Amino acid sequence: MVSSMTLRAVAWLCLVAAAAWMAPPGRAARDDRVGLLPEGISPDAAAFSENELYVLQRGTITVFSLPDVTRRRVFGGSGRGPGRLSPRHQFDQGLRLTAGRVLVEDNDKLVTYSQAGRFIGEARKPQNTTWLLPIGDRYVAKSMIVTGRPPTQIIRAALYDASLHEIAELYRQPWFQQPAPNGFTTELPGDLLHYAVVGNRIWVDASPRGFVIEVFDQTGARVSTIARPYTPLRLTPAERARLLREVRREKRVAQMVAQTGSWEQLRTTWHLRFPDTVPAIRELQAWGPGAVVRTFERQDSLVRYVVLDAGGGNARDRWLPEPTDAETEARVAGTSFFGFVGDWYYYLRLDSISGRWEVCRTRL
Q1: Which residues on adjacent β-strands are paired with residue 255?
Q2: Tens of pLDDT along 313-325?
Q3: What are the Cα distances from residue 248, in Å, to 171, 243, 335?
Q4: Residue 223 CB burial class (10 angstroms; 0-12, 13-18, ≥19)
Q5: Cα dist from 289 to 53, 64, 124, 198, whole Å
Q6: Can you give the C-alpha Rg of the chain in angstroms?
Q7: Which helix (DSSP H) or strand (DSSP E) does residue 140 occupy?
Q8: 8 A C-beta contact, residue 323 and residue 3
Q9: Contact (CB, 8 A) for 305 and 289
Q10: Which residues contact 143 (CB under 8 A, 6 or more apart)?
Q11: 207: Cβ–Cβ under 8 A, 6 or more apart, which residues?
């Protein structure tokens, strides 16, 4: 019999892996490793500033200089006291840098530090809410609800006030994972719903409709829609097999296999299905006055990013080295192991041989 712990883990399991689609030729930037994280550092989340890398691991934030990757300071930590995180496992965490502050979160609370590591304060999070991004004196966050008969899991982007009370729902779509009679069914790769704060606007990806981004103001009113031409990428049998291989290598899946006893036993309650085509938008990050969209398109070891200005126009393609993806459930909290800083694209890559994390950068 499968434990309720396992079912809860599956309920929020977030599995996304890159697929080996061929893409049109593009400009390829040179890979450039600048350093290694110390042994024993395995990021649960990461964020980049102009001259520093912030790594969150089990509630502790370690800060490294960039580009030389020298350890500068450590703050936070695991526990239940003020300024401490108590993740239920290593993926229940998020990390953001914004306006000179460091925001970290677990399933239950949002903690704020200065970038120097001084504890500023914390707030209790609404249930089933994650990935809080400030906009003015408010926040946009991802929230899960269950509605209807039979029950359907819905993922929403919602606006919250400074006390984390919901003001307005911005957008909703069915979650890529749904309850099944004896477990859960997961679509792989799934559409995760991403958003970014771009200036004084909130950009929310509506990729079930294609390359579409809905734009909202600080009151939650929709002000515009960004839509670009998009040809859906089909998921071939070979790519499905590759996704399954990637899934089985995930740390979170290994934990679930250990809980249930075997991969075969886990699959009796966790059912995978594959869409005909993949989402148009894989991730979304603010950068400069606009934003950068990561797609599922690959060419060898490069992935396609689309750079947009503040109005959603002036689209430019960049073919950049593929980072190591954030692990499973961390992706629910918006975690990405890459970032755009000035003219540089920084990314983390796990060396599977040494087990060390590489810090790399490429000029845009």
Answers
A1: none
A2: 999 999 999 998 8
A3: 32, 9, 20
A4: exposed
A5: 21, 26, 31, 7
A6: 20
A7: strand 138-147
A8: no
A9: no
A10: 126, 128, 129, 155, 156, 157, 158, 166
A11: 191, 279, 280, 281
**Could you give the CA distance from residue 219 to residue 203 in angstroms, rounded to a whole number?**
13
Residue 37's nearest CA partner among 249, 361, 350, 338 is 350
Measured CA distances, 7 to 12, 117, 180, 184, 261 (Å): 9, 36, 11, 8, 14
Q: What is the pLDDT of residues 192-242, one digit of tens each?
A: 999 999 999 999 999 999 999 999 999 999 999 999 999 999 999 988 998
CA atoms within 13 A on the CB side of 284: 27
Return the closest-CA partner of residue 175 out of 188, 199, 193: 193
Task: Please state the length of the chain.
Answer: 364
pLDDT in tens, 164-175: 999 999 999 999
Cβ 49 vs Cβ 114: under 8 Å: no
Torsion of CA 350, 351, 352, 353, to 10 degrees: -160
DSSP run (H or E) holding 297: strand 290-299
| Percentages of the chain per state (helix, strand, coil), in multiples of 5 | 10, 45, 40
Indicate whether this model's pTM tops 0.85. yes
